[in-house]
Design a protein that fits this description.
about 350 residues, alpha/beta, eleven-stranded mixed beta sheet
Length: about 350
């Protein structure tokens, strides 16, 4: 009986995770909005018309890409098409320029910054993502949150396959040293202000990288991060606590975004031995003693994607979060140690 229930849940997940795939580059249209994103990836060169593929590479690659957002885009959504898509109706890749190395990447980032003191947003995607999936999501976040600061996608080699959960967990470990090296290279190139936004299994990668840097005596670079935000983190809470202890002082603010409506993490819990994931914790005791702020998005509509991306896919949640996008430091002052939206609990307070 339990096996049948588990199989049923998995079938729901597989159906929800299928999505049309864009291949090749589309022609621009004047009425669309174009977002520039920078890319650092451990993926091989693209297969089947992709910007980059899903296979693992021992060498980091860098690029600058242009993503077109359709004129009738709805907040929170990613309008998808198949093949070489029509930029009038869908998110579309317009082109990607390879960059030679990390210094070349840093130079392009500086040139793209309207204000040289703007922080760089680094987005680390989650499980079952192609590079196009993650690039579209980052462009959507830039657009819907009206961000003006430069944005960099770190795309680790996820298989982009709903059956690839174990492969993706291994790929996180494969790429963690390279993400740490990317942070060090950017710091060395003069990029002092960095905000990390990690989603799902990407949160595990970020925590492993920060832990590694701390164990190597680079805690100063870890502490210099302007903010770390873990959205729907697919991490065992016990593992997270141990990672945090080994990192030592966490960057501030350090924000965890959770939701009890996250069905994807519910399945991940079953896949990992029925253990609740960090992105579904229900009370402050799970993070007691750690300098973190928790935002619970359970009262927002789950929307698509199994409720796994509510903070950036729910129009109401996006409207709420826009109050803080002018500076994450403002969030650190306003958030209590444990924040629940719409309900007050132990160590928490009500936000209207």
């Amino acid at each position: 009986m339990l096996y049948r229930i588990f199989l049923f849940i998995m079938l729901i997940v597989l159906a929800a995770c299928t999505r049309p795939q864009a291949v090749g580059f589309s022609a621009p249209v004047p009425e669309a909005t174009v977002k520039t994103i920078f890319i650092a990836t451990m993926r091989t060169e693209g297969q089947s018309g992709q910007i980059f593929g899903e296979r693992r590479s021992a060498k980091m690659s860098y690029a600058q890409a242009e993503i077109s957002i359709p004129p009738h885009h709805e907040v929170g959504k990613i309008e998808r098409g198949t093949g070489v898509v029509d930029a009038r109706r869908h998110f579309a890749p317009l082109g990607a320029e390879p960059l030679k190395d990390a210094p070349a990447l840093a130079t392009r980032i500086r040139k793209a910054s309207k204000d040289q003191d703007e922080p760089l947003l680094i987005f680390v995607h989650g499980y079952n993502n192609t590079l196009e999936d993650a690039a579209f999501r980052l462009a959507q976040i830039q657009h819907d949150f009206e961000l003006t600061n430069p944005a960099l996608l770190f795309s680790w080699p996820s298989a982009g396959d709903p059956l690839g959960y174990a492969y993706d967990r291994d790929s996180v470990l494969f790429a963690r040293s390279d993400f740490a090296r990317l942070l060090e290279d950017l710091n060395r190139s003069g990029q002092r202000r960095v905000i990390i936004l990690a989603h799902s299994m990407g949160s595990y990668l970020v925590m492993e990288s920060l832990r590694q840097m701390a164990l190597q005596g680079k805690s100063g670079q870890v502490n210099a991060l302007e903010a770390v935000i873990l959205m729907s983190p697919d991490i065992d809470p016990d593992v997270f606590r141990q990672q945090a202890r080994e990192i030592g002082k966490l960057p501030q603010p350090f924000i965890i975004m959770t939701s009890q409506k996250d069905r994807a993490l519910n399945v991940a819990g079953l896949l990992t031995g029925r253990k609740e994931r960090l992105g579904r914790i229900q009370n402050a005791e799970e993070v007691e003693g750690l300098e973190v702020s928790v935002l619970d998005f359970s009262l927002f509509e789950a929307g698509g994607g199994l409720g796994h991306m509510v903070p950036v896919s729910s129009p109401a949640a996006i409207q709420f979060m826009r109050r803080f996008t002018s500076g994450v430091g403002l969030a650190a002052e306003e958030f209590s140690r444990y924040v629940l939206l719409g309900e007050s609990r132990r160590d928490g307070r009500l936000l209207q």
